[in-house]
Design a protein that fits this description.
Number of domains: 1
Distance between the termini: 27 Å
Oligomer: single chain
CATH superfamily: Ribokinase
Shape: globular
Strand order of the largest sheet: 1-10-9-8-7-6-5-2-3-4
Order of helices and strands: EHEHEHEHEHEHHEHHHEEEHHH
Number of helices: 13
Strand content: 15-25%
CATH architecture: 3-Layer(aba) Sandwich
CATH topology: UDP-N-acetylmuramoyl-L-alanine:D-glutamate ligase
């Protein structure tokens, strides 16, 4: 099945919550990234804020200890978990529902070891983006052996690296290539673009929302944060992931209307998430 998803399809994901609810009902999300070369402090903070704005109960930002002071000023509702070793990371991800991984990395053998550990040991939901995807290149076998439920969020260039085809080749057959990849590697693939393709290897949802104002640094991080947040309390399936893509796109449209396609920045999308949820609920 190939279907263009609409707002009516995702309303059930954004129902009002029970008045007796508490934060423990909505999942614990870890945002794991950063490096001494590319601290990514603001982006990591934005991702964690997106996750909270999208409804999860708690967010833990997991970063190398030597950059923890650079991100602390940007965190309010989130908690910080610095690490110096893989053993520290093991402790940091204990009890989490979701781990989003890769922002602010560069390629490093240590990062490959971290990614391999999480993919083979963590049994929750994993969102891999940015340099997490680049670290995965040449190691796709890790996906098949994983105990986790995995979402990959590449743009075309990142997908090109993953499957070793040119962007021009991918453009000719995007849907089938995305389908085949998701099926072979047992993941939900979010192939970002003007029309974002979301597939679990069986069905495809096409998400046609957003605007030119979202073509700015950090927009992909916003989407990954939203997906991580929603996976904290919703089922891992094609509808949940497509709902996150739509929430991101609708928030982007609202932000662009306010800030213009020229002046809009990624954090404008974050601020528009509440209004996007209201729009979906109407």
């Amino acid at each position: 099945m190939i279907k263009e998803i609409k707002i009516d399809d995702i309303k059930e994901l954004f129902l009002k919550r029970d008045e007796d609810a508490n934060k423990g009902d909505f999942g614990k999300v870890g945002i794991l990234g950063g490096s001494i070369k590319y601290s990514g402090a603001v982006k990591l903070a934005n991702m964690s804020l997106c996750a909270l704005r999208s409804g999860c109960g708690l967010v833990r930002v997991i970063v190398p200890k030597n950059i923890s002071s650079s991100i602390t000023p940007y965190l309010l509702e989130q908690t910080l978990s610095p690490y110096e070793s893989l053993e520290d990371i093991k402790k940091s991800i204990t009890g989490l529902t979701v781990v989003a991984i890769g922002m602010g990395w560069n390629y490093d053998e240590e990062h490959l070891s971290i990614l391999e550990y999480i993919l083979t040991s963590f049994e929750g939901n994993i969102v891999i983006d940015a340099d997490g995807l680049n670290t995965l290149v040449g190691h796709l076998d890790l996906l098949k052996s994983s105990k986790a439920k995995i979402v990959l969020t590449p743009h075309l260039k990142e997908f090109s690296r993953l499957i070793n085809l040119s962007i021009e080749e991918i453009e000719k057959d995007k849907i089938n290539l995305a389908l085949s990849f998701a099926k072979e590697h047992h993941v939900i693939l979010v192939l970002k673009g003007h029309t974002t393709i979301v597939t679990d290897g069986v069905d495809v949802y096409l998400c046609k929302c957003g605007g030119a104002g979202m073509a700015t640094s950090g927009s992909g991080d916003v989407l990954s944060g939203i997906l991580a947040g929603m996976l904290g309390y919703l089922d891992y399936n094609l509808l949940t992931i497509s709902g996150g893509v739509m929430l991101n796109g609708i928030a982007g449209e609202i932000a662009e209307e306010k800030n213009t396609d020229i002046s809009m920045i990624a954090s404008d999308t974050i601020h528009a998430i509440p209004d996007a949820i209201k729009k979906i609920r109407i």
